[in-house]
Every structure is written in C-alpha cells, then in structure tokens.
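Notes to self after the Tuesday call (sharing in case useful).
The group wants a holo model before anyone commits to mutagenesis around the pocket. I volunteered. Ligand is tetrahydrodeoxyuridine. Logging inputs and output together so the record is complete.
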Amino acid sequence: MSKKITLFETALKIMENAYAPYSKFSVGAAILSSNGNIYSGCNVENISYPCGTCAEQGAISAMVAGGDAEISEILIIGKGSNLITPCGACRQRIAEFGTPETIIHLANKNGIQKSLPLKELLPLAFQDKDLTK
Ligand code: THU
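Result:
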C-alpha cells in the first residue's frame, strides 16, 4: 500500500479515538517519519479548555517517544467535510521536527485533497538561527 494511503487510513482511524466532548470536533493526524515509520495522534480535550491537546501534538509526541526525530510528511483530517489546516501553534511544532519542505496533507473523509510544503503554511518561521545571543 502506498505511504499516502497508509497515512490517510491511519489518521482516519485514530480520529475515531478523539476525546472532544467540548468542541465536538474530532481531529486525527498521522506522521511519516524520515525513517519511514508511521505515528498518529488525536485531539484530547480537557474541562480546563487550555489544557486540551491537538491531534498533531499527539502524533509528534508518539513520534518522539518512538525514537524518531524528523517529520517527512504529516496528514491532518477533521471530522467535517471542510479541510482543516494545522493551528498556528501546531505549525510551529511541526517546524521543530520538520524542514521547510515537509509535506502537509490536508484530508477529508474522501481522501487527501491538498498537499503543500510547510514553508507555505509557516513562512518566515522562527528558527534556531534566530536565537542569536
Ligand atoms: N484541533 C486539532 O486537533 N488540530 C488542529 O490543527 C486544529 C484544532 C482540535 C483542538 C480542539 O480539540 C478542536 O480541534 C477544536 O478546536
């Protein structure tokens, strides 16, 4: 099976596990690491709303815990038919473990609808080279 189909099916499946009683908006994310491994995550909300975590965050945590450190591609799918893009904070999280060429796939239940590089979603990103002392 192609990696893109595996990413889609993985994200679609994990979206079912989302814990989203407050927003009622489930999100799934699946990462293809540069080593060829797949990791996934879903959003996990909290009654103290700011404590909730995004699907991308969960997938990145799983990747790091699994011993990988570079995102080659990431797919995001939301519950509705609208395509969703990663929130601003998650773009920065993806940048931490990706490159400007990291591919972000946006999907709905029918499959991947759009794919674009991180540099288009997060131009002028804050980077380690900006941390001059
Ligand atoms: N959400 C994500 O999981 N990822 C995003 O990129 C956008 C938003 C979640 C957070 C919250 O649980 C729900 O979607 C509604 O904002």
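Two things stood out.
The chain is about 30% helix and 25% strand.
Residues 87 and 110 are 22 Å apart (CA to CA).
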